[in-house]
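On clarity, I found the account of how folds are encoded harder to follow than it need be. Since the whole study asks how a given chain folds, the encoding of that fold should be made plain. For illustration, here is how one protein appears when written out as sequence plus structure tokens:
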Amino acid sequence: MNALRFSSLFVLTLVLAAAASAADVTGKWVAQVPARDGGTREAIFNLKAADGQITGTVSSPRGEQQISEGKIDGDAISFTVVVEFNGNQMKFLYKGKVAGDEIKFTREREGGQEGAREFTAKRSS
């Protein structure tokens, strides 16, 4: 019975440690995001991480959009952003890896045929 208690306590400790080791992404991040015309556009990510979830906004020349379906697991983050353009809604899927003051992102439009685009966001003060 003591072995079972010890094992349970050990597993609980590992789970709590993993949750505590999630990357700190709360704050403002700035990136030059590839555009369809081959240029780039500045995007500002205002992120808040809590309890394995990410909330916040993404601001770009098209305005400010809410983040949804945000998740954080260690140094991996993901979320979606829905943009309305000319009466159509487009859903963008973001996935990123946090490394210090940078997030290396891929962004892909759901149902799009152009494939994922890569860019790096940097923490801003």
